[in-house]
């Protein structure tokens, strides 16, 4: 028996093992969130009882985000990636989604183009070094403010994602923006980091981080030139890139307000 099925909790560990082999940054907590929030959009492909392909999706208002498309190396080029994508797109559309987002690796881009996804920007993976401000404590999460600022960049209500990531990390907010820093073992991820008043972005960065020797990474829209200036001035450099693509309604996307994604590509 082979075919598409539900992504179960038992699939998380095998997925994480495969993802680590690909050099992906992903954690169990993301899957607990995805399976708890939008289980109908989290899919696997099974062949003779073995799971050979994975994909997750999640819905924020009228937009959806597809991530974690991964097929076992020996099962590639047999149409499994495309079949998982077709099913995920159908599930999201059935659930009222009008715009579907994803970040595309070179290997995935062919499938996405053939399904009608269009490029809208690039996402750069920036890395560098730093440390949290000594004695830094997270500020209380004002979800209404975060949602309003985030919405200017992404055009939709993403409070579930913001609550998850900002409660998990340390948060600093200002009148026109916010920055969050999440622990990933010894390393730190900056994001979500959004500003409607771009001049506050650097102040937020400096409130959050000081020079140090912890590895820091963040995913940043290429269309945000202010972010590029800040990160270059702090000694960060670009270590990789992916295409940001969408399907469906043209989104109200404002990359100048998005300084870093909330996730490392998997959830937006
Ligand atoms: C990207 C990935 C998920 C694709 O999975 P897959 O199951 O190989 O996907 P498909 O088989 O549907 O399509 C892949 C290619 O095989 C081709 N193909 C499909 N069936 C085929 C067949 N029977 N014979 C020959 N080629 C075939 C497709 O046309 C496609 O060609 P393209 O690469 O030129 O676009 C897989 O390569 C992978 O896991 N890569 C590493 C992780 C990754 O990059 N994920 C995407 C993140 S954005």
UniProtKB/TrEMBL annotation:
Transmembrane segments: none
Domain N-acetyltransferase: 1-144
Molecular function terms from GO: acyltransferase activity, transferring groups other than amino-acyl groups
Record's protein name: N-acetyltransferase
Transferase among keywords: yes
Source species, domain of life: Bacteria
Protein keywords: Transferase
Record InterPro entries: Acyl/Acetyltrans_Enzymes, Acyl_CoA_acyltransferase, GNAT_dom, YitH/HolE_GNAT
Keyword Flavoprotein: no
Organism per entry: Geomonas silvestris
């Amino acid at each position: 028996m082979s075919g598409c099925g539900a992504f179960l909790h038992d699939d998380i560990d095998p997925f994480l093992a495969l993802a680590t082999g690909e050099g992906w940054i992903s954690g169990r907590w993301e899957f607990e969130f995805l399976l708890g929030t939008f289980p109908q959009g989290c899919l696997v492909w099974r062949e003779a009882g073995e799971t050979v392909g994975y994909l997750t999706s999640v819905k924020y208002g009228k937009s959806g985000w597809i991530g974690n498309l991964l097929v076992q190396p020996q099962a590639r080029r047999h149409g499994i990636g495309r079949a998982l994508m077709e099913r995920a797109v159908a599930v999201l559309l059935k659930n009222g989604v009008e715009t579907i987002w994803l970040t595309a690796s070179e290997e995935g881009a062919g499938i996405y183009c053939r399904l009608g996804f269009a490029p809208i920007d690039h996402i750069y993976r920036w890395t560098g070094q730093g440390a949290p401000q000594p004695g830094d404590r997270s500020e209380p999460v004002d979800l209404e403010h975060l949602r309003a600022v985030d919405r200017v960049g992404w055009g939709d209500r993403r409070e579930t994602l913001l609550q998850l990531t900002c409660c998990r990390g340390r948060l600093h907010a200002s009148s026109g923006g916010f920055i969050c820093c999440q622990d990933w073992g010894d390393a730190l991820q900056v994001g979500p980091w959004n500003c409607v008043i771009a001049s506050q972005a650097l102040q937020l960065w400096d409130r959050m981080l000081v020079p140090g020797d912890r590895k820091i990474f963040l995913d940043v829209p290429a269309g945000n030139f202010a972010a590029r200036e800040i990160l270059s001035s702090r000694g960060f450099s670009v270590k990789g890139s992916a295409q940001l693509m969408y399907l469906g309604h043209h989104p109200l996307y404002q990359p100048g307000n998005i300084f870093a994604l909330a996730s490392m590509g998997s959830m937006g």
